[in-house]
Structure formats: C-alpha cells, structure tokens
Design goal:
The structure holds two protein chains of two kinds.
Chain A: H1 5-10, E1 18-19, E2 22-23, E3 25-26, H2 37-49, H3 60-80, E4 87-90, H4 93-103, E5 113-117, H5 126-135, E6 138-142, H6 155-158, E7 163-169, H7 181-191, E8 194-198, H8 210-213, E9 217-221, E10 232-236, H9 238-243, E11 254-257, E12 262-264, H10 278-293, H11 296-315, E13 320-323, E14 334-339, H12 344-352, E15 356-357, E16 359-361, H13 366-371, E17 377-381, H14 388-404
Parallel strand pairs in A: 3-15, 5-6, 5-7, 7-8, 8-9
Antiparallel strand pairs in A: 1-2, 4-10, 9-10, 11-12, 13-14, 14-17, 16-17
Helix pairs in contact in A: 2-10, 3-10, 4-5, 11-14, 12-14
Chain B: H1 8-16, E1 28-33, E2 40-48, E3 51-60, H2 63-76, H3 81-94, H4 119-134
Antiparallel strand pairs in B: 1-2, 2-3
Helix pairs in contact in B: 1-2, 2-4, 3-4
The chains are: A alpha/beta, B alpha+beta.
Chain lengths: ~400, ~140
C-alpha cells in the first residue's frame, strides 16, 4: 500500500512555512517532532472550553478538564496496550527516568547493580550516577559494536545476581539502532533483573506493544511524539508502581496529610504531585490517537525508504562515514554521519542555509562520542511527514559543505 | 543559497591553522569545553614579564572556533591580560555583543552576529586563554 505523504504533510502547518524564501526541510524530529492540526486543536479545545485545574474542583470547567485529562491517559494507555491507571504523566522523558531512578532506586541498596550501555542518552546515565552517589549502587555498561548497536553478546559477562535493573534505549538517538528487546528480557529474567526501555526515539514511530515486549518500565517524551513540550510518560508494571515511594511531594499525590505524617495516594496519582501538565497531556493523548490512526506498515516503509536514500546519497559523497547500522535491518529512521574535514556544526549550519534542519554535536551522548573518538556527528532524523524533497535538499547541502568547507 | 556565515575570510583563517599545536614547556595552559556542543579548546602560552611571548592552540571544534583561535593567536603575542581583554572586546564588537566596529582580524567574524547560537564558538578560545592567564605563576 502506498503512503500518501502529501496528505500527512498537509496536517502539519509548519511544513508550509517559508523562511528567508526557503521551505522548511525538517529533519530534526529526533530532537523535537512537529505537531499536527489534530493535536493543536485538542489543546485549543481544552484551553478555550475547559481550562481549569484537574481533580480538585466541583465546577463544570474542572469536571471538563479532569475528563479530558483522564481521557488522554486512556489514549496513551491504548497506544501502549496497557491499562490507563498504569500510565503516569511526567514533565518529560528525562523526568520519567529521574522518577524511576529516585523512586524505584530508593528500593535498591548498596551493592545492587544497574546495567546501562555506552550509547545511552545522558538522561539514562546521569540519574543513575546520582542514585549511585546517594545509595552506593554500582553501574555496569554494555559496550557498543562498531556499527553503533548495543553489544548484547557481552550480557553474560556483565550481568550478575546483583543486577536489579537493565535500562537501555529502545532505539538509539544517535545511531538509530533498534534494541533486541527479547534478548535483553530473557537475560534479565535469568538473574531476576527488571528491564526499563527509554522509548524516546521509538514511540514516535507507531504504537508500542508493551505486553509483547515484556519489559517492566517504559518511558517516552511527548514533544518527540508530535505532542506539545512539557509532558512525558512513565509506564510501569502495577506491582512496581505500588511498591515505589513518591518522587515529588505536594498536592494530588497524598492520601491524608496531618502535621505528623502523610499517606500516599495510589498510583498514578502518587507520582503526579502538583498541577500536572494538563494541556500538554491532552495534546499527547491526541498525538497518540493521531499516530494510532496511521497505517504504520506503510509509514515505516516510507520512513525507511527515505533512510535508504540518505544512506545511498551520503555514500556517494567522498569522505562521509555513517555511525550506525549500514543496512535497514534493526534500525529506525535516525542517521548519524561524519564528513571528513568538516565539523558537524559547520555541516549543520550549511544545511540551514539550504532550509534543512538537522542536529549536530554530541546528541547528549558524550560517552558514545568518546567510544568512537568523535567531536560529534550530524544527525538526520525522519518522521512520516518527510519526503523526497527533504532528502534532496539535505544531500545538496552536504555536497556543498564538502566542496566549500574543506 | 545564502551561505552568509562561511565567508572567505573566516574559512581562510581556519584553514591557515596558524598557531595550531602545542608548546613545549608552556608557562601556562588551560582547556575550555563548551558543554552545549562539545567543542574543546586548549591554549598554551609562554610568558615573558607577564606578556605573551609564544602561544599555541589545539581546537576540537567547528570552523568558527578554529578561525577564532587562529585570529587570537596571531594577535596575542606581546599582550598581557588587559591586552587580551582588549582583543576580546574587538571580537565581541564583531559579533554584535558590543557597540562599535571591530578591527582586523576579528572583523572577519561580523557574519556571526546574526547567528547567536554560534557566538560561543568564537569566544571559546578567549575563554581558554583568559583562564590560562589567571592561573597562578
């Protein structure tokens, strides 16, 4: 089945924007995706017909706001194939990982071990380093293969009976490599460890079947999944959420407060202290519904067809190297590359003058840059709304940088 | 295509690589990282009565950072800390952070004025040199 990219593009008003006489070729969705009309309308509807705080008011606007907020929770849950009450809205993906590191981490003790990898985003490294400082847990690292995948052949060496949690990127934000989740889960089960996936780069590419993945925690960001900024999601198995202490204290997360002591609300409220990001959460619910309505077999084929064009085009430019899987197998539409003799920022700046938006630098993955002794990479990240015109502009810009800057 | 940032003067400065490298037995040396982009500059200096006698730079960074390090190294010999501060004012004028007209070689960076996200690329070599000069003797 063919994919009607023109129809998808019409749903994203920003793609019609002209800046300095040039159309927008947006290839930076891995940093922040664009937002379709359906999401903008959902937020507009809330702000113009139902704006109020949630859970606390008896007036009709508060009832409306609460209804929309809880419907959004159900929409996100349906996207992940789980019950609504297992969904915790957070301030973002980073906030969700910090929540787990603090609350689940609070159940760990000195000497327990957490397994990460060299390609993790800083948000899946630093919270665990902070936990290590607080509690004395130990961190282990899975290495990365030369083609930018987590080297799971090292699992038997680094897993121990003290390993309590394995936390890995579902899809790398630098190399695009897709994790072999089944292999990780099987290995984790052999030592009784839990598994958390950072789904920031996977969730924007279609519904996630958490039951099939059989992991224990899953997190992702709203703004990378076509929703507004300021909202993210934590899903965890209910028995884990039940056992975890609160992260933040405040309104909404309590059972009963006295000056002597406080009891906690059950999940998910226990983890949603204070006024939540109501509008962004409603937008995220709409984004999940928007994604669920796409034909992802066709959309994925479309995205990966563009990836193939990027890989083929870059390989024809002398001095380019890809950091990531060379084929379309086990990868998602994120492509990092280096252009010999030209710094990634200069590549990205040149591309901007062609109207092409990409990301350059260390991508919040400095340990991965150290692994490959790189200053950084130029990263192309693709969404269903990208088309051949975007890729043509990209390759024209890279060729220009190659001829003028070295 | 309006390739306004990478004009010939900036590219020529960067490609000249003048002053690139290390000094043997520098009097002072300092490294600065830009945590946002990962650029890294190391500056070595030999001082004579508080004035820069020799200077060398190692840049792991973009073309703007390389060009700025070259411009700084070509202008810094014979200057003390206050003289280096004067050069920095010139660079800040070039990128529009201070009023006035920049002098050569820093006037090459005038196209950077409209690219605020790249200002730090130009200033990072100054940060490293000024850190080095503040080190105790």
């Amino acid at each position: 089945m063919s994919f009607d990219v023109a129809k998808v593009r019409r749903e994203f008003p920003i793609l019609s924007e002209i800046i300095d006489g040039r159309p927008v070729h947006y290839l930076d969705s891995g940093a922040s995706a664009q937002t379709p009309v359906a999401v903008l309308e959902a937020v507009w509807h809330y702000e113009t017909t139902s704006r109020a705080n949630v859970l606390r008011g008896v007036h009709r606007l508060a009832e409306r706001a609460t209804e929309l907020y809880e419907t959004a929770r159900a929409d996100v849950a349906r996207f992940l194939g789980v019950p609504a009450m297992e969904i915790v809205f957070t301030g973002g993906c980073t906030a969700a990982i910090n929540l787990v590191a603090y609350s689940y981490g609070g159940l760990l003790k000195r000497g327990d071990r957490i397994l990460l990898s060299e390609l993790e985003h800083h948000s899946n490294i630093v919270p665990w380093q902070l936990l290590r400082q607080r509690t004395g847990v130990e961190l282990d690292m899975l290495p990365v293969t030369t083609d930018g995948q987590i080297d799971l052949s090292a699992l038997p060496k680094v897993l121990t009976s003290q390993t309590k949690l394995i936390s890995l990127a579902h899809v790398s934000n630098v190399t695009g490599a897709l994790l072999d989740v089944r292999r990780v889960v099987d290995a984790a089960k052999s030592v009784g460890a839990k598994v958390m996936l950072d789904g920031a780069q996977r969730a924007p590419h279609g519904p996630v079947d958490l039951a099939a993945l059989a992991v224990d925690f899953y997190v992702f960001a709203g703004h990378k999944a076509y929703a507004p900024n300021g909202v993210g999601v934590l899903w965890a198995k209910p028995e884990l959420l039940d056992a975890m202490p609160p992260f933040h204290g405040g309104g909404s997360m309590i059972g009963r407060v006295t000056l002597a002591e406080t009891t906690w609300a059950p999940p998910p409220r226990r983890f949603e202290a204070g006024t939540p990001p109501i509008g962004p959460a409603i937008g995220l619910g709409a984004a999940c519904n928007w994604m669920a309505a796409l034909d992802w077999t066709a959309a994925h084929d479309h995205e990966m067809g563009l990836v193939q064009r990027v890989l083929d085009g870059l390989q024809k430019i002398e001095g380019t190297q890809i950091l990531g899987p060379a084929s379309l197998q086990n990868r998602y539409p994120v492509v990092s590359f280096m252009l010999d003799g030209v710094h990634p920022h200069d590549v990205a700046q040149t591309l901007d003058s062609f109207g092409v938006a990409v990301r350059a630098g260390h991508h919040c993955a400095q340990p991965l840059m150290d692994r490959f002794d790189l200053d950084g990479t130029t990263r192309v990240s693709i969404a269903p709304y990208n088309d051949n015109g975007d890729i043509n502009a990209l390759l024209t810009g890279v060729r220009h940088a190659a001829t003028t800057l070295r | 295509m309006s390739d306004e940032l990478y004009q010939a003067k900036i590219v020529a400065l960067a490609k000249s690589k003048a002053g690139a490298g290390k000094l043997t037995a520098p009097t002072k040396s300092a490294r600065r990282d830009n945590p946002l982009c990962g650029d890294r500059v190391t500056i070595d200096v030999k001082l004579d009565n508080g004035k820069i006698a020799e200077i060398a730079h190692q840049v792991r960074g973009c073309l703007l950072c390389q060009a700025s390090a070259v411009a700084l190294a070509s202008s810094a010999v014979g200057r003390d800390a206050s003289g280096v501060a004067e050069l920095r004012h010139d660079a800040e004028r070039a990128i529009g952070r201070e009023a006035g007209k920049a002098h050569e070689p820093f006037d090459a960076f005038e196209p950077v004025a409209n690219h605020k996200s790249r200002h730090e690329c130009v200033l990072l070599p100054f940060e490293a040199l000024q850190d080095a000069l503040k080190l105790p003797s």
